[in-house]
Structures are given as structure tokens and as C-alpha cells.
Amino acid sequence: MCSVLSVKAKLALSANDLARLLLTIERYNQACNFIAQYGFENSIRGKYDLHHALYHKVREQFKLSSQMAVRAFARTSSAMKVNRSVCPHFSPHASIDYDQRILSLNKRTGDISILALNGRIKCPIQVGPAGKDRLAHGQRKGGAKLQYRNGALFLCFAVEIADAPLQVSSGVLGVDMGEVNLAVDSDGHIYSGLHVRNAQKRLLRLKSALQSTGTHNAKRHLRKLKSKEQRFRTDTNHVVSKRLVANAFDTRRAIALEDLYGIREACNRKTVNKHQRRYLNSWAFYQLGFFIRYKAQLKGVTVQLIDPAYTSQVCPKCGHVDSQNRTSQSKFECVECGLAGLADHVAAINIAARAVVTQPIAGMIEPNTSILSIQASPGR
Fold first, then answer.
1. How many other C-beta atoms are found inside a 10 Å radius of the C-beta of residue 202?
2. Residue 114: exposure state from Cβ atoms within 10 A (0-12, 13-18, ≥19)
3. What's the domain range around 245?
4. Residues 27 and 117: beta-carbon distance below 8 Å
5. 138 CB contacts (<8 Å, ≥6 apart)?
6. 360 in the same domain as 272
7. At what angle are helices 216-250 and 194-213 packed, to 10 degrees?
């Protein structure tokens, strides 16, 4: 099996080349807006119909190459099919699509050749350690997106990497994910969320103050905070998932996770106060589980999803189930046999025990393949 992962590379451009590519992005998005307006007014959404109606006009008016015009028709057609009642609008610096005909990557030298309005531009790319490893061991798949962020240009493309053979599991590592502790495994290792909670509190206070101000600079600051919060969340989930998978791989064990799909909707339906909902909805439980699954697949570690019902209320010693066993958010004490401990650790032990009963034959058990697809992962 193979996994398709993403790589984000920064283009090391001169000021002149940066200006050329920015002009290309602006012209491309102007062409997309022109195509979208024509298609919306004439009820034409298919890329081939739009192509036959506007191809020569788009090339002449916006000075796009033939293949770049083809990509513009495809991008616009896809956007028009999302909501047929609204004409899509593309911002001046929205990302643009490149394929193998107008973009090439030299893996040996780390340089790219990318098409602009008035010819090709050759430049080196800057990639992090994880991206370099993926480029070295994987095969680039499909096209790429050119994005403009904070005064720099980035290329995002997919790389196909072969998964490691499934290792024979000698046990199961149960993992309980939560709000106070991001994850606790059945070995008792705690991945605390205290620093996450403190960072969230600071960001929420700052965002509330900026929203009350409502000035242009305040709104600009809010946009920066959103990007900062997303990067912090993703980085933290990467660190936790990497350590959990490394632990399972080194001890030759499978991983059992809670199936938390739909947890936000369930919490919002129940009597959870506004303060708690804010924190539950601001952390990416699914993202953490997703990172664990794709990293495990690359390592050959089996992953199983377990029904989380009553995992924190069942005594792993005597099997007694009672809501009174959970004396507080952090404490567990069985009313039947007196077993006491950290509630999240008890839940992780129960998750591991349930997985042992129904050990999967394949690499992963996925209740919804479309949701848990490993394709185009944003991870490291």
C-alpha cells in the first residue's frame, strides 16, 4: 500500500521573479473571475463547454499560456459546481494550479522550473527535514498549488510513499484523547494539555478584545492570530502523535484509539456549558487521531478504532460499570472493588482491552473510509 502525503516548499526567488509570479497569479485569478461570470450568466458549468466558448478570448485578454488557461477552466468549473446558485469569486492572490507541463522539479538539485506569463523561472526551493525525506523516498503525484502567504510564495504538492510492511503485534497500546490531557496511553504516559489550555486562554482573551475594537488593524491582527493558532495546534498534534507511534513501533504493539467522529455535535447537543464548548470546539481531536493513523501506517503499525462508550466508567479490574466510578474529571475510583487511579489512564486501559478482543487482520479498521482516508495528509 501507499500513502499520499503533502509537501510544502518555499520558493527562493529574487525580487524580480517574485513580482513576475505575483503578476501571473493575479492574471490567472482575473481569468477565473471572467470565466465564472460568463458561465454563471449563461448557466454553463462544464470545463469543456467553458473551454470551447472562451478559450481564445481568455488567452488573448489575459495573456495566459495554453496549459495555464486549461487549468483556469478546470479550477473555475470545479468552483461553480460547489454552489450552483452563487457565482464564485477568486481573490487576486488566491492559489493557482500547476501540472507537470508547466512545472518541473529536479529532485537531485532541489530546483524547480515554473511557468510565468513571460517565460519560465528557475529557482531553488526550501523544504523542511520531513519534506526532504518525503521527496527523497517518494514519487511526486499529480499537480501542485502555488500559494502566496505573508510576502512569500509556496508550492504545495503531493508525494506518494510506500507504507512499511505491517509488523506482527505482540500487544495493544490504548490511547485516550481528551481536553485536559491531550492523550494518555495505557502505559500511563501523559501528554498534558496544560500549555495548550494556557495558550488558548491567551488567544481567546486577545481575540475578544480585538473583536470589540473592530478597527482595520484589529481585523488584520485577528487574521494573523488565526494562522498562528492553526500552526500551534498542528505542531502540538504532530509532536504527540509522533511519540505515540514511536512507542508502539518500538514495543511492537498495535494502537487502539477512540472513534471520536461526531464528538462536537454530541457535546453541543448535551448539557455542556458555553465555556466548555468553546474549548471542545477549538481543539482538533480528529486531527490528532488522523496524524496517529497515517504515521502508524507509514511505520507498519496496526491501528484500530474503538467505541468510546463507558471507557472511563468501567473498572478494568472487576468490570463494574457505574457513572459514580468517575468521581471527578481526573479521578477514577471503583465503588465495587475500590480500584483508584487517573481516569484517563483507566480509559486507555479499557480501550486497549477492547481492542485485544477484536484484533484486526488488516492494517486498519475504518468505519467510514471517506472520512478516514489517508490521502493528501497535511502531516509531517
1. 10
2. buried
3. 172-365
4. yes
5. 5, 159, 160, 161
6. yes
7. 160
Place of cell 477484536: 358
> What order do you get walking across the sheet with 190-192 strand by strand?
190-192, 181-185, 172-177, 254-258, 303-306, 364-365
Instruction: Write the single-letter amino acid at 268.
Output: N
Q: Give me the tens of pLDDT residue by residue for the chain, a chain 380 residues long.
A: 778 888 899 999 999 999 999 999 999 999 999 999 999 999 999 999 999 999 999 999 999 999 999 999 999 999 999 988 999 999 999 999 999 899 998 877 778 999 999 899 999 999 888 888 888 877 888 889 999 988 899 999 888 888 888 888 888 999 998 877 889 999 999 988 777 778 778 888 888 888 888 888 888 888 878 777 778 888 889 999 999 999 999 999 999 998 876 655 555 545 555 555 555 555 677 888 889 998 998 889 999 988 888 888 889 888 899 888 888 888 998 988 888 988 999 999 999 998 875 444 444 434 333 222 223 333 45
Whole-angstrom distance, CA of residue 302 vs CA of residue 230: 28
H/E segment holding residue 108:
none
Considering the domain architecture, whether residues 58 and 202 belong to the same structural domain is answered as no
CA proximity to 237, closest of 287, 298, 174, 303: 287
DSSP code of residue 164 = P
Same structural domain for residues 220 and 358?
A: yes
Cell reading at 250: 518500538
Q: Facing residues of 65 across strands?
A: none
Q: The whole model's pTM is what?
A: 0.73
Residues 209 and 147 reside in one and the same domain: no
Q: 64 and 8: one domain?
A: yes
Distance CA 73, CA 162 (A): 33
